[in-house]
Amino acid sequence: MIIIEILGTGDAKCRRVEDNCRKALEELGVKGKVVPVYDVDEMVKRKITTSPAVLINGKLVSSGSVPSIQEIKSWLRK
Questions:
Q1: Would the pTM of this model clear 0.70, i.e. be above it?
Q2: Domain map (residue ranges) of the chain
Q3: Helix, strand, or coil (residue 58)
Q4: C-alpha 48: how far from its chain's center?
Q5: What is the pLDDT, as a whole number, of residue 13?
Q6: Which residues contact 62 (CB under 8 A, 6 or more apart)?
């Protein structure tokens, strides 16, 4: 199972990323879980300085932007 973590403050951009990740999983038919981590202390602990950040199975794939559904799907195919 794929674990996608969204790290940030929980603002509108973070929620859009969360929605896009869920849609990408659904469109690909891939079993996965989207985990929002809206805790600044956790971001500092993981040395993430810009939000929203996207981690797939623990690997940082995006930070500071709202990736499109197509972009997320390309990451999930790898």
A1: yes
A2: 2-77
A3: coil
A4: 13
A5: 97
A6: 52, 53, 54, 71
